[in-house]
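Q: How would the structure tokens look for this protein?
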Amino acid sequence: MPELPEVEIIARTLKPALVGQTILGADLLWARTLAIPTPRKFKEKIKGQKILNVSRRAKFLRLQLPTYTLFVHLRMSGDLFIKEESDSPDKHDRLRLLLSNGKILVFNDTRKFGRVWLTDEPESVIGRLGPEPLSGEFTPRWLHENLHRRHRRLKPLLLDQTFLAGLGNIYTDEALHRARLHPLVVSDSVKQEQAERLHEAICAVLAEGIRRNGSSIDWVYRGGEFQNYFRVYAREGQPCPVCRTKIKRLVVGQRGTHFCPKCQRKR
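A: Here is the predicted structure in token form.
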């Protein structure tokens, strides 16, 4: 699943091509792609809307329209890109939006888990999300205080989008290794100095992910190179880049989790 860096790159790539374009019509090829509204209302409401901005909130792509906000969540296999009007639909195209410049904005999703929302109440979609990890709201003090307001294992808490928005399996494993914290440490046991290390690690790993155009370990996401710089993720049995101990894998909250048993001791 694309995480914050991958979604950020997609938003940055699409923005110059989409801003200023008017949506002339919609071709919905799989009705369940829409979370809200109904297909009929979607086609009525989206027609004639001008794209004012393209941005990201957590793992959501956000297209700002004059009256509505269009949210896209890529989930496991979704992708959003621009095609020529003359290009025939791909078998996995779920939604195609005809633009005023003759191009088509295509939502392609092989596994059909991705969803699209068109709403005049953005908070109904993203209102429960936690702070952005690259925003001013996310500080070492905030992290320490909020870790201690909960009694949960560290990795599942960091993956909880209502706690902190945008982190997924890859960048959580990488940040925990940089911070030298075991994924099963209980959140309210994390000391101030450890919270500061974790804050710095989260910001650093996300910034590097964006700088390297994301991670291309899944056949769905294209163009990134951060996978060439992983410390622990997907490196089970390989040496830790810090201490050369073999990376181990365990399952935490049904998610494969990679860590160094020496650098990230569970005390």
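The two ends are 31 Å apart (CA to CA).

The chain has two domains: 4-126, 140-259.

Upvote if useful.
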